[in-house]
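Archive transcription. Copying these from loose printouts into the bound notebook so they stop getting lost. Printout 1 of 2:
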Amino acid sequence: MTQNVIRPILERLGMLDGNEWLIKKLDLRRRQADHFQYMSRHFSFDIRDATFIDLGPGTGESLQIAKHLGATAIGIDAASGEGGMGDPYLAVCREIIRARQLDVRCVGALSIDRELKKNSVDFINSRGSIEQILCQWMRGKPHHTHQNCNLMHWKTNCHLGIGSFLEKCAAVLKPGGSILIHANGAANTNVYDLALLGQAARYNFRIKKHEDRLHRLTLE
């Protein structure tokens, strides 16, 4: 699948106007290389026969890589673009996901504990999706109107949303399973960091910060 499929999809869906940014963002060749590097760095262990969940899978590159490595790869995506990347983004991604024959369920990440069996998951990947998953816990214009997380702020009570999210993830993870969360950032990411750290222990996660905005949480 080549990069030049994006514009025709947008034109056919009547969504090209005002969405030229999508053509640049959904550069499939660049995304494949970027996701391969990310997966190699953070999931370099053998994930054969593991169950790998990608929250906000976009056009599915991480799922493709996990599937190629022998994992059962499942994406959990938003039901609509409101508060997230927007409906044009989701519409294009869903077309590409179908063409790639990947298992992506558009039910919303906060439905993960209803969509998946208890203690059935080895790894959950949330790369650049936590702000969209927890958009109701952020202040500022919705992300889909500007595509810039730095224009948004975490609410001071965001620990409630983060706690609920971790509780749902803990329900489906196997003991020893992990979540890798790479946040996009916000004007007050320090509030998010403190909330994540505070809520991790509450749901029996051991947390390790790998780098700025990148945390691995392992279920004990």
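Printout 2 of 2:
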Amino acid sequence: VMNLTQFQGSGKTLLLWLPSERGFGQGYVPVALSLAAMDYDVWTVDLHNSYIIPTSRESLQEVDMSDLLELIDSAQQLGFERIFVLSSSRGMQLALRMAYLWQQQNKASDLIKGLLSFSPHLIEGRPEMGQDASYIDIASYSNLPVYLLLPQYSTKFARSSEIAEKLKEGGSSVYLQALRGIQDGFHMRPNEDLTDQDLLMRGQLGQILGSAISLLR
């Protein structure tokens, strides 16, 4: 049984929110409530509690893709007409795999409308800054529109155009929003670790994601 929290909107558009390899952290509940107030349903999927796994760099490798595909089946049966998938860091690898498998198995369906991600981690291994990176295969398979949120103080920021080009290889339209002066993980770190600017940006996240979903639609 998947451990998820549901925030109710109007029941037509679902934002399926997957955690990073480090979990959800703090701050996601006000964002989800803000989106629900805009009539988007939000399901936050607590993968670490679902599989009883610790948060770590490799943690999401334990996730069974068939469980995620069942979530999409459930959403379809509940009458959702559009699904957007939100993820961050290595969670984007799961989002891409899940969406691709769903499309392969449901070729006539356009239920999944797009992907949104904070600082997606799509690189094989851990190249140093300035070194060429090789990307995981699934990064170039997607044809879904993608909206990337990239904090300036993130290791992914310097590779933002490189990440976008890789995602475009499968036919995706890619939108980049640079978050100037913001540190990586601002949407999940404890408040005491954040600057006033980070906190302000987190307070605007519901609005930012709502606008991103409208654009992807």
